[in-house]
Fold Phenylacetic acid degradation operon negative regulatory protein.
Amino acid sequence: MTLGEAETDDQGQSARPQSLMFSFLGIYVLGRGVAVYSGSVIDVFARLGLSEEAVRSTLTRMAKRGLLARHRRGRKTYFGLTAYAAEVLEDGRRRVWETGAVNRDWDGTWTLVGFSLPDSRRSTRHDLRSQLVWAGFGPLLGGMWIAPGAKDVSAMVAALGLHDHVTVLAARALKPTESADLVGRAFDTEQIAGRYRAFLDRWDTPRPLPSLPDDLARQLLLHTDWLQLVRQDPHLPAEHLPPDWPAIRAEQVFRSLARAYEGPARRLSGQFLDELTI
């Protein structure tokens, strides 16, 4: 399960409070062996203008979905990560800090996924396409989707019960086909670039989001915006993208601001967060 799938609610819409909650949990809970008091989480999120009702609803919904576990001490309820949530958040951490936004190490291979499903399985076909997008695939021809590099889709196929309907291959482009042509045909590079430009418009300024009260609020929003970007990015080979590809500058801005906000945000969070060792 990926972060993109875990962030999607039952109606298939990404909920902003939940996206912010994933950022908060990834920064302040993942790998620390703690649970956080719901009241202190509400205090943190109030700095972003989220109501107590919205935060409590998000925590409850995530607990129902097996992402959070409740822990009680006296009259207080603390929320900690389940193993499932830790896996989801670790996937997000790798995308942000290890995979990054710029693919400079492509080995020239593609993963191809071909499928054919009857109309009676339209819903499953939609689920497969959605999960392929999250995994970095783009539609090439009819039921054939491609992604740069080696992609393991076995868990996705198994979860959807599609072993008999899906073919997965590793391939290289051969003449007259060029990899650059595949990038242009299967992926909307202008749309991807537009998302990075929007990020830069918001964050690549001397004082980003001055209306927010402090660097804790800016840190959570920055990480949320960036993770939304990288999990929608198919990580296309840099050699087949324009030299001024905006993801390059956007990643520099993200990393610089993340470092700048880290210290002040940690100090502020220490004033708000009530933690329970678990």
Remarks:
- The chain has two domains: 1-105+187-278, 110-172.
- The first strand starts at residue 34 and ends at 37.
- The CA atoms of residues 101 and 117 lie 33 Å apart.
